[in-house]
Structures are given as C-alpha cells and as structure tokens.
Amino acid sequence: MHNDFLVSLDKQHLIHPVSNYREHEEKGVTILHSGKGAYLTDYQGKTLLDAFSGLWCVNVGYGQDSVIKAAETQLRTLPYATGYFDFGSEPAIKLAAKLVEITPSSLQHVYFTLGGSDAVDSAIRFITNYFNALGKHSKKHFISVERGYHGSSSQGAGLTALPAFHRHFDLPQPNQHRIPCPYAYRSTENTSDESLINQSVTALKNKVKELGVDQVAAFFCEPIMGSGGVIVPPKGWLKAMQLCCNELGILFVVDEVITGFGRTGPMFASLAEQVTPDLMTMAKGLTSGYAPMGAVMMSDEVYQGLLQGCGANAPVGHGYTYSAHPVSAAIALEVIRLYEEELLANGQRLGPYFEQGLQAFRSHPLVGDARCRGLLGALELVANKDLKTPFPAQLKLAERIAKSAYQHGLIFRAFADNILGFAPALCYTEEDFDLLFQRLTRILDEIMGQPEVRLAMDKAATHCQPVVNK
Ligand SMILES: Cc1ncc(COP(=O)(O)O)c(C=O)c1O
To answer: Hey, which of 159, 258, 293, 320 would you mutate to test ligand 1's pocket, going by the most ligand atoms within 8 Å of its Cβ?
Structure first.
C-alpha cells in the first residue's frame, strides 16, 4: 500500500498513545517497516539506528531468529490456553517458575498481564484485596514519587506523577499521594548521595505520618524514574526506601517495567542492592516487545493473605482472557535464555562504553547534565549551563531534535522538557555505539546552529537566577 494512503488512513482512524491528536493530524504517522539487530527501516526505505529499543523494550534487538522460532512453534502447537477454570499451559508454568528463580528471593508468585499498565493496576487491586482480607480496611492510601511513571490505567495513571496523565482525567484520586523525586541536577538542597537518600526517606516517613500509618497501603517506585526523564537516584536509594517501608509497615512495590531484564546491568535493578520487594511489576523486556506480556510478582506473605480472603465459592475476582498467554510465555522463555546466555553479559561489558560516550557530551554547549546506569541514560539540555536554564517551551526544542534525529538516522526519546532519553538494545556492538554518538553530535551541533536556539541561549545568558524546580 502506498505510504501517503496509509498516512491518510492513519489520520482518519488510528488513535496513537500519549499524543497531541491535533498535532498528529498535522504531522501524520511515520511508518516503520522492518528491523534487524539495532536497526529499523521505515516504509520509505530509510535505515535508522534505534537507540531507544522501540519504547525501552526490544532489549534483545530486532529479528532474533530463535525468538521467532519459539513463537512459531508455540503458535502451531497451542496458540491459546485459558488460565481460567484451572487450565494452564506448559510455557506459562515454566515462565512463572523461571521468574521466581531470577527475581529477588522475596517474590514467589506471579500473575501475568498484557503489559505494564495492567501489571500496576493488578498490583493495586491485589493490595486492596489483601488488606481487606486481613481485616485492615482502612489501608487505602498509595504513595508514589514525583516524575514517576506507573502506566495509564484508571488507577495506575494516578500513581503516575506526570501532569499530562492527570489533565482532564480527574486524577490523582484523593487516596494517591507523592513525595519529591531524588533529582540531583534540579535539587536546591544538598545533593550528596547520602543527603538525597535521607531526603526521600524523611519525605516518605512524613507523608505516612501525615496520612496515618493505618491508612497507608503501599509505596510504589521505579529504581530509576524512566518516563519522568531518566532520573537516576543514588546507589542505595532503592534499598533505603525498602527498609523505610518495612519499618513503617507498608508494602513496598518496585516497578521494574523499564529497569528489568538487563536494562541497568543486572537482570533486575533490585538485585544490585539486594532489595526484596513485597511486589514487583514488569513488562517490556520480559518478551522484548515481540508479543505483549507483563507480570506482577508478589511475596508469599501477600499471596497467603489473598488466599485467606477466599471464602467458599468466593474467588479472587481478578482475571484477563490473555493472562499467561502461551505464545507470549514461549517468547519470554526464549528471550530470557538469550539474556542469560549472552546478552546480559554484552550489556554489562558495554555499559561503561555507553556511559563514557554519554558523559563526554557534558562538554557540548547544550548539555547541562548526563546521567546513566547500565544501558539506560539521558542528556538534559539547557539554554545556560551555569544557571541550568531550561529552553522556553514555545521553542519546541524536543520536536526540533526528534526531527533532526530522524533525518540523521537516529531514534531516541526527546522528552518535552528537553531531556533526551537513551535505551540501546543489549545486542549493541562498540560500532553501534560509535555511530550513535557520531550521529548525536551532528544532531546537537545542527540544533545549536538554528537561529531561534541561539537566540534562546543568548537570552538565557543574561538571566541571573539558577533554575531549580520539580
Ligand atoms: C515504570 C513503568 N511502569 C508501567 C509502565 C506501563 O507499561 P505499558 O506501557 O506496557 O502499559 C511503563 C511504561 O513505560 C513504565 O515505564
């Protein structure tokens, strides 16, 4: 089908996730056609280096034959099996056991979803059910972190602490609360690791005190705030938050939808700090995006609480037709085999190379901050480096960058607040990284050469207040 015709059909019928519908109708869709390794080819035949693994998910890279084969074999054998009525399938059972083996030892039970949003939503439902089953009916409040992202479900989007997900959606709900983000670059206070950790711990304790501990059910956080701009907390932050939750007697939920499956180095970010959450959500790298699947894992204690709540003929009324889908499970098993046998090691070997390359951009006039853990990184662009002045919104810098990046054959995430997010696949080679940095240099130089951008930088040079926020 001709590109223009597809673009026109798309405008008429296809609603895109988290997009400005007006702007999308003006701009039109960019149609992707195929992928191999770290590279994508669009519908017009242009080849692009993907430095974002699709949407931080295609961790094994595109076109992995063994994954395709695993999917095909399962499709031919049994394309669907319900998990209802005590039915099941071999790949789903094996995958549940595998996940228990590779996640923190506290997690013993798995409920499969279709992605991250419904994993978070399931976690909220299970937690609510758990406390009611225990007779602790007042524990209804949830706390998350500013700039945190926990998906787009009716409840999860309220834990997501990004304004676009609340606007016109009547969120957050009255039982959803936030503490500040440990955002060193934009912090007014002492930004030593110890101080940032203490600030978060104190904020959580104060929030729980304010609400009343018998009212608070759980604290949700990501090990790194991904969609909020790849905000990397100091090492030890996640463990400190867990210990704080344990001390307060509230459930600790780690959302590893982005950070799971080798993204930050180890299989899960929680493992780097011996974190033992009560619940964990995951998706994306679980199947590397080859088929939809997510999961919520829980401790035996939480599971036993839910079990206790089952009366005679009273099931836990939570289920999806496609929970534990056998094709997704077969894909996940093969994807995990690839991580374990080669890709985790490759990602760990090249993590420092990626970090070094990213940090070198600090010398670029546009770059105020560079931050990274494993293969998850970001550059924060500012109009004045000394004062950390953001570019004015009307400049639409992110749009300019995304456009220039595409022309130069590179895909990454240009966030609206001028943070550039990177999540290269674990199959990247040194040469792929060299190309990424080469192209990124050209893009940033080109953007800096634009008269409107120069003007914004000149104006920012005359301001005198350092910009701290959020
Ligand atoms: C930390 C986190 N949680 C939840 C989600 C939602 O996942 P999904 O888009 O698969 O629904 C995302 C998606 O980016 C995420 O990054």
So the answer is: 258
